[in-house]
Design a protein that fits this description.
Largest sheet: none
Distance between the termini: 55 Å
Oligomer: single chain
Length: 106
């Protein structure tokens, strides 16, 4: 079989993944932060009652957690104390998920 050349259709029109495969959940959360309201970021939601910080802890999203805690619209102390439906703080969730650096931040 012949290897593709620079003029083959493989290089001119390479296959592309669907747009939702280009980003991880962490990237998407990072992109959405400026567009979410204080209530959306602080209020528990979903089946586990996660705040945005709980979601960061669950995914290991250290950079996004730093952005959340530095967001002047939010009460970072309240975020750090918030409990999910299982009574866990974001720090406890990060610890149980093995996200050491994130747990240390929280």
């Amino acid at each position: 079989s012949r290897s593709p050349t620079c003029t083959s259709s493989t290089y001119i029109n390479p296959p592309r993944p669907p747009a939702h495969h280009l980003f991880t959940e962490v990237d998407l959360l990072e992109l959405l932060l400026p567009y979410l309201s204080v209530a959306q970021l602080c209020e528990p939601a979903g089946a586990d009652g996660f705040t945005a910080l709980h979601t960061c802890a669950d995914m290991g999203a250290l950079r996004t957690a730093r952005r959340l805690l530095g967001d002047t619209r939010l009460d970072s102390a309240a975020l750090l104390k918030a409990l999910d439906k299982h009574g866990r703080t974001a720090r406890e969730l990060a610890e149980s998920a093995g996200h050491v650096a994130l747990a240390e931040l929280l």
